[in-house]
Amino acid sequence: MTGTQLKLKVMLFLGMTALWSGTVFGESSSQITQANQLYNQNQFQEAVELYEQALAEGKTNGHLYFNLGNAYFRTGNLARAVLNYAKAQNLLPRDEDVEANLEYAVRQTEDQLDGRKAHLLESVLFWTRDFNLKEHTRALLWLNLAFWVTMAVWLHIKTQASRSARNILLGLLILALMSTGFRGYLESRQNFGVVLPKTIDIHSGWNTDSTTLFQLHQGALVSVSQEKEQWSEIELPDGKKGWTQNSSLAR
Amino acid sequence: MTKTGKPPVHKNQHSGIFIAALFSWITALLIMTTGMSWAEEVQVTASVDKRELTLEDSVNLSIRIEGTQSASQPEPPRLPDFTVRSRGSSSSFQIINGKKSSSITYNFILLPRKTGTFTIDPSTVEVDGKKYQTAPITLVVREPSAVLGTSRDVFAEMVISNLKPYVQEQVTATLRIYHRVEIRNLKVGTDFPGFREEKLKGPVQNTRIVNGVRYLTYELPTALFPLRPGKVEIPATVIELDQVDRSRNGRPQDRFDPFGQGSIFNNFGRLEHKILRTKAVTLNVQPLPEINRPESFSNLVGEFSISSQLSREEVEVGDTATLTITVSGRGNIQDLSLPSPDWGESLKVYQDQAEYHPINGGLSVSGEKIHTYALVPLKEGELKIPPISLSYFDPTQRNYVFAETLPLALKALPGKSDPDLKVIGPGTLNAAGESDTVRKVGEDILPIHTGPEVFDNHILSLSAVLWITLGLMIPAGLFMVYAWAYNHRQRLKHDIAFSRSHGAHKQALKQLEALPLNSNQRDFVRALSLILREYIGNILNVQGSAITSSEVKDKLLKGNFSPEDVQDTQKLLEKFETLQYASAETSSPEVLIQESRNLLDRLEKKS
Description:
The structure holds two protein chains of two kinds.
Chain A: H1 3-40, H2 44-56, H3 62-75, H4 78-91, H5 96-108, H6 133-156, H7 160-188, E1 192-195, E2 199-203, E3 212-217, E4 221-228, E5 231-235, E6 241-245, E7 249-250
Antiparallel strand pairs in A: 1-4, 1-7, 2-3, 4-5, 5-6
Helix pairs in contact in A: 1-2, 2-3, 3-4, 4-5, 6-7
Chain B: H1 11-37, E1 43-48, E2 52-54, E3 59-66, E4 82-96, E5 99-112, E6 116-120, E7 124-127, E8 130-133, E9 137-142, H2 144-148, E10 154-160, E11 171-179, E12 183-189, E13 195-199, E14 204-210, E15 213-226, E16 230-234, E17 238-245, E18 270-277, E19 281-285, E20 302-310, E21 314-316, E22 321-331, E23 347-351, E24 355-359, E25 366-377, E26 381-385, E27 389-394, E28 399-404, E29 408-413, H3 462-494, H4 496-514, H5 521-540, H6 549-558, H7 563-581, H8 589-606
Helix pairs in contact in B: 3-4, 4-5, 4-8, 5-7, 5-8, 6-7, 7-8
């Protein structure tokens, strides 16, 4: 295969990908518009179905999760509402509407528990959760460009100022790389779940014969620390830990 | 003229050599230092800068450890009669005539607490597991006047406005620091146990005459409120400062010349650390009289007045009016707290946090305390607000005084809405007494987000990941190409050897092509020989035209060419020489050019 052929194939692949993305997103957008109209006409269950359909087709959008959360809230499904608000917050970390609705929905639950746990690295890369992956990537690309431009400038003008600018940008670029990677990791693993049944028993081990440690109620938002044989270990902010079956948690 | 030798621009190489040299130098120095350290004899000595001093002076204690730089921090001796402060350490290392000497000195400053003769016990230092001790030192501490005998340059006193105050009556304690020389780095540590203290505006600079001598003063006033009756002592205040001694620089100056202090010619002088102490003062605090003491009295001592004001005279039932009660005056007004009033069931009262506004200036604490109440009438009609009374003790009259506000009336009109909805909590009143917020009666989720533009995918698609990868790689790749081109250009410009060898092959081939084949053999082979020697001269950065076939061998071997290449080159050059000088020998020009070209190609590959 010659170099020209390879280039052509890459361009064709990228073009096809872009075209495919456009088609898929075009269809999803009309579904979402329709779902929004149904919601505004108080047909909440129908709106839920269309929102879920858009998600099943590969659409991943914070506003979509937010609207789905609202639709579930109106149908009385508090657990699913909490779950979708939490997912929306993951993608829209600074959206005040999402924060308000999540807080309000959690307050309506019996346990009023938002037990999502921050990753240990977040104490160092504390800004990571404040921006979604797209925003992190954008910042990374701009910093990368700025860094290499500064390197080119530094090649010509080797002053203290250009050296300092180069070093500062290198530091920022490394931080951006770390935080983008970390954000990608956080988005790839969803470490929270919401209790679906009215009441669930939390066991000391991953079988029903083990001791019941405590109970949680519908809509409790908990942190999942590990999974084993269809069971999930959950962790509460006060340090309590225990196991529940995966089917009891919406994730 | 062709410039030979080292190329002028090789900044990176230079800095690399410099760093390597520096590193080697430091390593050698370290090896030498560590290798020689045990050879030195360790000595530990303690010294002071003076052995006789006054209570106003300080002593510098230096513990010097010679023969090592790795000694542990010395344990300073226990000195209960001094305040000990560490002043850090300094180290030195010298090699004089091959003899190495190193030392480390730990410095301490000692501030005497009382007069007498004191011995500084030996300090212990541990070096390589062995303990060393310093010799004891004797110090004599005297009263300041006993040494000076004459009027002093710097001294301090504590002036108390009233030595027989009542409990909670304000007393002003003014610390005055008198000086007739320049002072710097003033540190004051006041302590007033048994009093509540409030800082007054200061410090104030002044001029005072003491025993006919003119002094500049710093005055720091503090308002004190005695907390209990009986004898209460204000302990001696310790003041630390640096006295500037300019006379030691041989520049006598007028101590009262205010301009001299700011002049750059007089800005140098030796600093002498001084500790001043005021005398302890005992106050006889009197209890507040029991006779005529009102029941409502709450330890308010001073001179005060009280006033009240309603934000409006008419208000609807359920609506709010604001009552403001202002107490102003001089004394311990900060301690004032008015009781929460109870004016029956027809009026609901919410008390706000009181605000205190001090009035700065002067040597007394004064100000006003504003209490705000939100009044919500619960019934229609004329509501009476009775006078609010205040009792305090006036030290000037030596008696208790009553003060009260005028009675007020609030007309409650019929309400239009549910009074509960307008009920507000404390802290939400604006200046007009109106409420800023209304209590929330309901709560709901916020509406859905609409608009197609907000529904773009929030995760990265495959194409986006590809573009991001390219976005990260392309600038780096472009920079590398640019940097290579830039460095290449710079090298061609500044590195003569590189520049000559860079175009040598191309130039030689060009010259070979341009050779006229029909010229006579002697000129032809001379030109061929010159082309080949110039090529060799260019790749080795030497004068090519002057090289002989026998010199070529040495030069090429030094240039890391293979023996075969060297031999072939020498042979060809010798052949050219033979053809040039022996007319009997002949050879085809095309063959000679081809042989030359082959050799040039081989040498170019190796160069």
